[in-house]
DNA sequence: GCGACAG
DNA sequence: ATCTTGTCGC
């Protein structure tokens, strides 16, 4: 992009050199058919099995962040200097703990006709926020079920680009393997960056839960299997619907004792994580609220960033 | 043609 | 996702 050619300059939302698989960038100018075929190639590249890199216990969060008085400040790693300066000061995060990054978007009110997304990425290590990053990105296409990554992919990547920390695990808002072509936004971003990722959705895009999801107690879970809308080979070749592959789980992360109003989460592997471990990771990352802490923090961060920028 | 559909 | 205060229930 030459500064002398008179064309409007705009820094690219993502530097292709920083992504592991630039051929999978979610280009929103592709045709619908091209988007779908890109997702098929993406799913073939994705790994829905454990990487041996992240274990739920290593990322467990015990205390939920108090958001009543704004976002908690980002903190530096624990070091010997901390205790020398002030022995009473709470220790910073364990520098050896994995970095979990939650990402979420908020949307600016379309004043003209141009929709823009404010995306936030929050790095959490050892249960402590270590960094916040956000980015404002133009949205090229409307929301289309099954093609969410082509609307929100660039915003997510832009926020991750602005983050200094290197994620060991990505927690995305939306599905991963629970997707018509097993390539939801969590899978898309995970493969693109070749980082372990999980998808956490508040509603079900496709698939069939083994059991009814009504009135379930906290901690309850049931497999979600591929249904007819999932066009994957393994999904199509299943003899009975009972043998259809498990593409994710419905997981009740929170519930009230004498009420039945909270709906379950729908969690699925993004990349380099199994369906089983995805539930374990989500469970470990929840600290009393329905959403995993990284997602809850990213949610609040995106809202805060939105207010500042409009 | 009808239904179903993450954010 | 977003437009939005109070309010019913634990």
UniProtKB/TrEMBL annotation:
Catalytic activity: Endonucleolytic cleavage at apurinic or apyrimidinic sites to products with a 5'-phosphate
Signal peptide: none
Pfam family, one: Endonuclease_5
Name of the top EC class for this enzyme: hydrolase
Alphabetical keyword list: Cytoplasm, DNA damage, DNA repair, Endonuclease, Hydrolase, Magnesium, Metal-binding, Nuclease
Subcellular location: Cytoplasm
Binding site for Mg(2+): 104, 173
GO biological process, one term: DNA repair
InterPro entries in the cross-refs: Endonuclease-V (IPR007581)
Biased composition range(s): Basic and acidic residues: 81-91
The EC number(s) this enzyme carries: 3.1.21.7
A cellular component annotation (GO) from this entry: cytoplasm
Co-factor requirement: Mg(2+)
Record region (Disordered): 1-26, 55-98
Secreted in keyword set: no
GO molecular function annotation: deoxyribonuclease V activity; magnesium ion binding
Principal location listed in the UniProt entry: cytoplasm
Site keyed Interaction with target DNA: positions: 143
Cross-referenced CDD domains: Endonuclease_V
Similarity remark: Belongs to the endonuclease V family.
Free-text function comment from the UniProt entry: DNA repair enzyme involved in the repair of deaminated bases. Selectively cleaves double-stranded DNA at the second phosphodiester bond 3' to a deoxyinosine leaving behind the intact lesion on the nicked DNA.
UniProt-recorded name of the protein: Endonuclease V
Organism phylogeny: Archaea, Methanobacteriati, Methanobacteriota, Stenosarchaea group, Halobacteria
Name of the gene encoding the protein in the UniProt record: nfi
